[in-house]
Amino acid sequence: MSTHAASAPTAIAAAPAPAGSNASKALGVGIAGIVATVLGLALPGNASAVAVGWLVAIVFWTAIAIGMLMLIMIHHLSDAGWSVVLRRQFEHGISAFKWLLLLFIPLLLATWLGKGDVVWPWGNLNHVLHGTETVGEDAAYWHKSPILSIAPFSALSVLIFAFLIFVSARLRKASFTQDVDGDIKWSHQSHATSASCIALTALALTGFAFFWIMSLEYHWASTIYGMWFFSDCIRGALSVGLLVQLWLFARGDFKGILSSRHLHCTGIFIHAFTAFWAYVAVCQYILIWSSNLTEETFWYNIRELNHDGATNQWWYVGMALILLNFLVPFLLLLSYKTKITIYKIAPVAFAILATTLLDLTYNISPVLKDAHGSAQPFLSLNLLWILTSVIGVGGVCVWSYFRSFASTKLIPIRDPRIAECLANHE
Predict the structure, then answer these.
(1) Which segments of the chain have a pLDDT < 70?
(2) In this structure, are residues 299 and 288 in contact, taking their beta carbons and an 8 Å threshold?
(3) Do residues 330 and 314 touch, judged by C-beta distance below 8 A?
(4) CB-neighbour burial class of residue 197 (10 A; exposed 0-12, middle 13-18, buried 19+)
(5) What is the b/e burial string over 394-421, where b = at least 16 CB atoms within 10 angstroms of the residue's CB?
(6) In the chain, where the domains are located
(7) Interstrand relation of 133-134 and 128-129 (parallel, antiparallel or unpaired)
């Protein structure tokens, strides 16, 4: 058996990379978003709103990067042929992990150097909960304090990031080196890395979901919260991957590479995880509703009612998620034509990214309370800091993608499955 992989046609291998100006523009947009977010700190009493908006952005872009990493490993473990070209875009995307860690550090510094509760209430033992009780007086907190303390929380967050950076670097090195020497041993190494690390990556994303999001309201717990976050990770990654491929096709780079079959397969995956998201969300709601325990139902109550019993804005956000994050894309993606038609599938992908951000906002932002203990409105100045933060962090991630893009071939030209992928036409 040959130790060298098949090669793509020379003309395809020599396809032009995006101009360096794209990376500069992305970084410029990112810096502008970061500056705009920092300016929000100048407003009195606005530190928590800005920090929570920053957390939403970090979680959103980290979720997409984790989804890309998971899909790369699934590709290697299933030895898939159709997704070889898409995998290369994901390999560029996961280069952002080290920058996401750097951008997460300000939240840790704010927690260490400030009062501790700028984002997570448990960071300050004097933080007042539901009336007059403080975190330090709360028995529920002390049961969870071994991990919900600033030092272990910081260490675990950095450790998880370090693991993701390591796995990403190993997979990227194997893929990019194979472009040069064509040795099939790199495919075997990627398969072994994926087999040994995919379960740990699942634990890593669950850890982020628990530590970063669920601990914002630490009295509440859901055993399937990691599954919910996983669905957002995969849908976000697939949507970004699809849009990047369509952009490259429009530029001319993917002419003769991207086919309707590739779009169809990607659309099938997005459709499947749209149904999976709904399944997990409904299961979580029904389990909590049926048990009717005060320590669980409050999480939904603050997303439906104000302290005076009036319906708040978050109830409408929840209804919008049912409609726009599940029902509409699920029905649209039932159609084969929608999956393979560029002007139909592209808006669906954009919409899924928007509703994924909305879903994360729905889970995170209600931690911001007014004087009565009600969640601050969705349509408020807080939304501005979420948007500026998403632009800021996103600009850095896109810049990282372009830097990686320029460092290697357009597609994995010597991957053993590349010929199968390029011939994957209907």
Answers:
(1) 1-20, 131, 425-426
(2) yes
(3) no
(4) buried
(5) bbbbbbbbbbbbeebbbbbbbbbbbbeb
(6) 12-124+134-422
(7) antiparallel
**Could you tell me where the DSSP H helices lie in 182-312?**
185-208, 225-251, 260-291, 294-301
How far is 408 from 15, CA to CA, in rounded Å?
A: 11
Give the number of other Cβ atoms within 10 Å of residue 195's Cβ: 12
**CB 77: neighbour CB atoms within 10 A?**
13
CA separation for the pair 214, 368 (Å, rounded): 14
Q: How far apart are CA 407 and CA 29, in angstroms?
A: 22
Angle subtended by helix axes 260-291 and 84-93, to nearest 10: 60
Helix (H, G, I), strand (E, B) or coil at 311: strand
Amino acid identity of residue 20, one-letter, is G
Each residue of 314-338: pLDDT tens digit?
Answer: 999 999 999 999 999 999 999 999 9
Looking at residue 16, what is its pLDDT? 47
| Among candidate residues 286, 311, 309, the one with its CA nearest the CA of residue 296 | 286
CA distance 339 to 224: 30
Please give the DSSP secondary-structure letter assigned to residue 326.
Answer: I
> What pLDDT is stored for residue 63 in this prediction?
98
C-alpha distances out from residue 204 to 32, 160, 167, 198, 362, Å: 31, 6, 12, 10, 22
**Contacts with 192 (C-beta within 8 Å, 6 or more apart), sequence order:** none
**pLDDT at 33 (0 to 100):** 98
pLDDT at residue 9, as a whole number: 53
Give the C-alpha separation, 3 to 192, whole Å: 17
Angle at 398 between CA 394 and CA 400, to 5 degrees: 115
Burial track 22-48 (b if 16+ CB lie within 10 A, e otherwise): bbeebbebbeebbebbeebeeeeebbb
Contacts of 169 (CB under 8 A, 6+ apart): none
For 314, half-sphere exposure in the C-beta direction (CA atoms, 13 angstrom radius) is 24
3-class state of residue 375 by DSSP: strand
| Whether the model pTM is above 0.90 | yes
